[in-house]
Design goal:
alpha/beta; seven-stranded mixed beta sheet; binds pyridoxal-5'-phosphate; globular
Length: about 400
C-alpha cells in the first residue's frame, strides 16, 4: 500500500496525544537483544510472576463453559458484585454493583473519566512526576494540565498547601495516585485528610488511581473515597493487572456514583462494547479465591526492594529512598551531573540496563531514574553491578 499519493491529515487533537515511554524503551531494548546484546529489563511496570493457577483455571473453565460472547458494557453482574464487595471491604465503605464499571484494563477508566467530565479550557490537577497518560489525556481533550509535585523530602508525599494554591474556579478534576508511579510514594493519612478538607467545598471531581493499593510495604492505603463528604465525587480506578499479575489479561474497573457509571458504560458501548467475557469470570475467581499469591508476591517485592535500594545507594551520585509502595525505585541522580534522559539512554545502550528517565513522568522527574524491581534478585544484582561499573568509568 502506498502512503505517498495521499497526504495523511490527522485530527488536530492527535498532535496533543502523548505516550508512555516504557513501551518505547522496551522496543529499543528488544532491538539491542536482536543484535545479540543482553539487556536487563527494569523498565516495564508489570509483575514478572505468572498469574496464579486458580485464576488461569477459572479462565479455562469459562472458555469451556461458553463465556465467549458479548456481555453487558458495564460488565457481568457477577464481577460487578465481586468488585463492589472487595472495594467496599478494603476501604471500609459500602459499594453498590451499580457503581462499578468493568473495563479492559484500568487505563480506559482514565480515558473515559477525562472524556466524560472535562471540557476544553478546564483545568485538571495531576501529579508530577506521575503516570504519563494523565497529562496526555488532559491535553488531548483540550484542557489545561496543572501539575502538582510529589515531594522527595517528604518521602514523595503531597503538599496540600501547594495543591490548594493551584486549585482555581476552572479546576474540574484532580487526579490522585497513591501508591504513586513512578516514585513509590504513598500519601499519608494526615495529608489525605488535609486534601479531603481542602476539596470539601469545591466543585471538583477526583480520579483516585489506586491500582497499586495492595502493594504497600510500610503504612496503610488511605482512599479518598472513605471520606463521606467526598464520596460522590470520587472515581476509584483499580484493577487486576498489578495485584494479581494479570497485565496481559486486560481487566480493570472504575467505581463511581451510578449516574456517572451509566455514562462511562455508554463510552464502553461506543468503544469496546464490553470486556472479554471469560476474562471477567477469571476476575471473579481472582477476587473471591485464595489470596496467598498476592501476599507472597508482596513479600518477594519487599526483598527485592531492599536489594535494589541498598545497591543504588552504593552507586556514586545516586541517592534512593525506600519506596513505601508499588514496585519502583526512583533514585535521585543529580550528583552524577548527568541529565536523566542521557543517563537512561547510556545505561541501556552501553551498560545493558533498561530503565526510564524520570522525565518520562513529567518535568519534575528531571534528576531521577525509575527502576522497576519486577525482576529477579539475581538480575537486579547484575544490573546494579553494571550501573556501578558504568558510572565509575564515566564520571
Ligand atoms: C499509575 C497507573 N495507573 C494505571 C495503570 C494501568 O493499568 P492497566 O494495565 O490495568 O490498564 C498503570 C499501569 O502501568 C499505572 O502505573
Amino acid at each position: 500500500m502506498s502512503t505517498e499519493t495521499h497526504k495523511l491529515r490527522l485530527a488536530e487533537c492527535m498532535s496533543r496525544l502523548g505516550t508512555e515511554s516504557a513501551f518505547d524503551v522496551l522496543v529499543r531494548a528488544r532491538e539491542l537483544e536482536a543484535e545479540g546484546k543482553e539487556v536487563i529489563h527494569l523498565e516495564i511496570g508489570e509483575p514478572d510472576f505468572p498469574t496464579a493457577a486458580n485464576i488461569v483455571e477459572a479462565a479455562k473453565q469459562a472458555l469451556d463453559n461458553g463465556w465467549t460472547h458479548y456481555g453487558p458494557p458495564a460488565g457481568f453482574p457477577e464481577l460487578r458484585q465481586a468488585v463492589a464487595e472487595d472495594v467496599g471491604r478494603r476501604r471500609g465503605i459500602s459499594v453498590d454493583p451499580s457503581e462499578v464499571v468493568i473495563t479492559p484494563g484500568a487505563k480506559p477508566i482514565m480515558f473515559y473519566t477525562i472524556l466524560a467530565l472535562v471540557e476544553p479550557g478546564d483545568e485538571v490537577l495531576y501529579p508530577d512526576p506521575g503516570f504519563p497518560i494523565y497529562a496526555s489525556m488532559i491535553n488531548f481533550v483540550g484542557a489545561t494540565p496543572v501539575p502538582y509535585s510529589m515531594v522527595e523530602d517528604r518521602g514523595f508525599d503531597i503538599d496540600v498547601n501547594e495543591i490548594v494554591g493551584k486549585l482555581s474556579s476552572r479546576t474540574r478534576l484532580m487526579i490522585v495516585n497513591s501508591p504513586n508511579n513512578p516514585t513509590g510514594g504513598v500519601i499519608s493519612r494526615p495529608q489525605m485528610e488535609n486534601l479531603a478538607g481542602a476539596l470539601k467545598d469545591r466543585d471538583v471531581m477526583v480520579l483516585a488511581d489506586e491500582i497499586y493499593s495492595r502493594l504497600i510495604y510500610t503504612g496503610e492505603h488511605v482512599s479518598l473515597a472513605a471520606f463521606p463528604q467526598l464520596r460522590d465525587r470520587i472515581i476509584i480506578l483499580d484493577g487486576f493487572s498489578k495485584t494479581y499479575a494479570m497485565t496481559g489479561w486486560r481487566l480493570g474497573y472504575g467505581v463511581m456514583r451510578p449516574d456517572l457509571a451509566q455514562q462511562i458504560a455508554q463510552l464502553m458501548t461506543n468503544s469496546n462494547s464490553c470486556t472479554a467475557s471469560f476474562t471477567q469470570m477469571a476476575g471473579v475467581e481472582a477476587l473471591r479465591g485464595d489470596q496467598t499469591s498476592v501476599a507472597a508476591m508482596l513479600e518477594e517485592f519487599r526483598g527485592r526492594r531492599a536489594v535494589i535500594v541498598d545497591g543504588l545507594n552504593r552507586i556514586p551520585g545516586f541517592h534512593c529512598r525506600k519506596p513505601l509502595g508499588a514496585f519502583y525505585a526512583f533514585p535521585n541522580i543529580t550528583e552524577t551531573g548527568k541529565p536523566s534522559h542521557e543517563l537512561a539512554d547510556a545505561l541501556l545502550n552501553q551498560a545493558g540496563v533498561a530503565c526510564l528517565s524520570g522525565t518520562a513522568f513529567g518535568e519534575q522527574g528531571e534528576g531521577y531514574l525509575r527502576f522497576s524491581f519486577a525482576n529477579s534478585i539475581q538480575n537486579i544484582q547484575k544490573a546494579l553491578d553494571r550501573i556501578e561499573g558504568w558510572i565509575k568509568k564515566n564520571r
